[in-house]
């Protein structure tokens, strides 16, 4: 016991959370971190500033080669790893950039998960192995210009024409859209909301790139335009109807965000800590001033609490006991607190905090999007409120 008391504290793991991880989990984390350090970190500030990733297809293949696409799915070339493994990977990816984690999250937890969970065997065989390797990219078409938090209000329609379906509509804020080979598209039919697997080279399908973003700039964000897109009857998911399908996919993605947002927070906190030790004012490092230490201590506390919550939810997911309202708890808390950590870290860096020479302002801007997508603060607040009271306040 005396040895543990005398040990030098590790600023990166003050609470000793690593003790709760298995050897395999730490190895997964290390392998993702190594890839990020080699393939992403040296270039990501430039990608963000220019608003594009120079060779995103090559990066996708690197991510696929490590097994990151659909890593928590089994079969069809997927790695079949645990929810905690996936969460740790999301954290490391977002420590590099939220846009990179979004690429992996949309590919694996939305497009691939939808096909894996609801698709036919033909869908799975056609798409999942290529998507797992990064040879094919997918996107997920649910959100519309006038239907975000209320997806039931979508105006995209699919109608029968002989044995085919014809889809008309628009989707908005679609990650990966302009580079995707396949889109999972949700549309109203005469039989409720149904999902379709749509190759993006289908006549009438286009995906204009959304520009002028100040957040998630190292990410492809697009509009999907479906103008008389004709697909065969077999393109439809055969069983799932209503919002149960797309919302279950969103729950998968939200789980990754619970972890991923902490990566941005960890990166910003560590940057602020190092900066405060090197930056001197009034004859000593600013880390020696009480107000700076208070900021560092408060940020560390919130990061630790978020990590413990994420790990707890991951263990529940692996145990098959995780509920959607618990995912909302995690998304609501961890993104909100991670954004506050980034904002506070920015103040420690002073004027340097707005420079892309440091990752803090990039993480801060990115988290403004993460705060909104996969369910806004307001929506997750109401989910938690309903779980507490048993009363719905959505309408």
Labels describing this entry:
11 strands, Butyryl-Coa Dehydrogenase, subunit A, domain 1, flavoprotein, 395 residues, alpha+beta, globular, four-stranded antiparallel β-sheet, flavin adenine dinucleotide binding, three-stranded mixed β-sheet, Butyryl-CoA Dehydrogenase, subunit A, domain 3, 51% helix
> How far is it from the N-terminal to the C-terminal residue, by CA?
56 Å
The spatial strand order of the largest sheet comes to: 4-5-9-8
Q: How is the CATH topology of the largest domain named?
A: Butyryl-CoA Dehydrogenase, subunit A, domain 3
Helical segment count:
12
Q: Can you tell me the CATH superfamily of the largest domain?
A: Butyryl-CoA Dehydrogenase, subunit A, domain 3
What Rg, in angstroms, do the CA atoms define?
Answer: 22 Å
How many structural units, i.e. domains?
A: 3
Overall strand count: 11
Amount of helix: 40-55%
Architecture per CATH nomenclature, i.e. the level-2 architecture of the largest domain: Up-down Bundle
String of helices and strands: HHHHEEHHHEEEEEEEHEEHHHH
Mean pLDDT over the residues: 96
Main sheet makeup: 4 strands, antiparallel
Morphology: globular
Supply the helix-strand structural class.
alpha+beta
Q: Which CATH first-tier class of the largest domain would you pick?
A: Mainly Alpha
Oligomer: single chain
Keywords: FAD, Flavoprotein, Oxidoreductase, Transit peptide
Pfam families: Acyl-CoA_dh_1, Acyl-CoA_dh_M, Acyl-CoA_dh_N
Domain Acyl-CoA dehydrogenase/oxidase N-terminal: 24-135
Protein name: glutaryl-CoA dehydrogenase (ETF)
């Amino acid at each position: 016991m005396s040895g543990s008391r005398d040990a030098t504290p590790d600023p990166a793991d003050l609470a000793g959370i690593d003790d709760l991880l298995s050897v395999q989990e730490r190895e997964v984390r290390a392998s993702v971190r190594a890839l990020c350090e080699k393939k992403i970190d040296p270039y990501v500030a430039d990608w963000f500033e220019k608003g594009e990733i120079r060779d995103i297809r090559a990066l996708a293949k690197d991510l696929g080669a490590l097994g990151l696409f659909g890593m928590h799915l089994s079969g069809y070339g997927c790695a079949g790893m645990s929810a905690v493994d996936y969460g740790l990977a999301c954290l490391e990816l977002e420590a590099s950039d939220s846009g990179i984690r979004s690429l992996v999250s949309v590919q694996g937890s939305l497009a691939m998960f939808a096909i894996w969970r609801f698709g036919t065997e033909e869908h799975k065989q056609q798409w999942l192995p290529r998507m797992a390797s990064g040879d094919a990219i997918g996107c997920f078409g649910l959100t519309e210009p006038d239907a975000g938090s209320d997806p039931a209000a979508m105006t995209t329609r699919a109608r029968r024409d002989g044995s085919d379906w014809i889809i008309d509509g628009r989707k908005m804020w679609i990650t990966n859209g302009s580079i995707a080979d396949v889109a999972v598209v949700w549309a109203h039919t005469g039989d409720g909301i149904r999902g379709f697997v749509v190759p993006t080279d289908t006549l009438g399908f286009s995906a204009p790139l959304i520009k002028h973003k100040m957040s998630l700039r190292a990410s492809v964000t697009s509009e999907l335009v479906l103008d008389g897109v004709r697909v065969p009857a077999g393109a439809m998911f055969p069983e799932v109807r209503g919002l149960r399908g797309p919302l279950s996919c969103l729950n998968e993605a939200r789980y990754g965000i619970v972890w991923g947002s902490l990566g941005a927070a960890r990166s910003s906190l560590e940057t602020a800590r190092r900066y405060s030790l090197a930056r001197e004012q009034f004859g000593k490092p600013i880390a020696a001033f009480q107000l700076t230490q208070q900021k560092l201590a408060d940020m560390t506390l919130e990061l630790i609490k978020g990590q413990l919550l994420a790990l707890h939810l991951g263990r529940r997911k692996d145990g098959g006991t995780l509920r959607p309202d618990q995912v909302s708890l995690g998304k609501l808390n961890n993104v909100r607190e991670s954004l506050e950590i980034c904002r506070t870290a920015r103040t420690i860096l002073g004027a340097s905090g707005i420079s892309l020479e440091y990752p803090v302002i990039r993480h801060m801007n990115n988290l403004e999007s993460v705060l909104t997508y996969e369910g806004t603060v307001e929506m997750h607040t109401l989910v938690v409120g309903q779980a507490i009271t048993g009363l719905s306040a959505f309408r």
